[in-house]
Amino acid sequence: MKTRLDYVFIFVQIFEACAELVFKRLTEGESLGLSCLPQQDHGPPVGLHLYHRGVQTQTTLLSLSAARAVRVDPERRERLQLSGGLDSIRINVSISDLQLSDSGLYTWELSYRERNISDGMIQSEQKVFLLVEGAGRPRMCAHGCTPLLWTITAAAGLLLLAFSW
């Protein structure tokens, strides 16, 4: 009986790890919509960052804090649109006219001030993996990438499980 409970626990951990990473596949010229829901039980966030990790670079696309003005990556300023703020229920970012270089991992990072500790911070993350395919090219990954994506998801889940113990 204990073994079954262990398997249920492992399955729940892997499922939660997979739920934190979203995969999206779009074509050049389309728009990507990213949404972030701040955790209401921590109060409003005091900082928000949106990072993009590409093949060879990592860029801060957006920084928002109560003390400073909104900072947007100058290379994507014209294509990036923000709606909502730190006090909003939902924060949305739209990146228009997608390019192949927009492929990669997008990570939302929110910082909350802990209510009971003056200097304590709580951080939460949400991640989206985007694959931008060339317009006019056939989708090479229609069926061949599904096993690869499941393998990556399972590996990420197992790593998270291993590090949580």
From TrEMBL:
InterPro entries: Ig-like_dom_sf, Ig-like_fold
Alphabetic keyword roster: Membrane, Transmembrane, Transmembrane helix
Residue intervals passing through the bilayer: 147-164
Protein name in UniProt: Immunoglobulin V-set domain-containing protein
Organism: Nothobranchius pienaari
Gene name for this UniProt entry: Nfu_g_1_019845
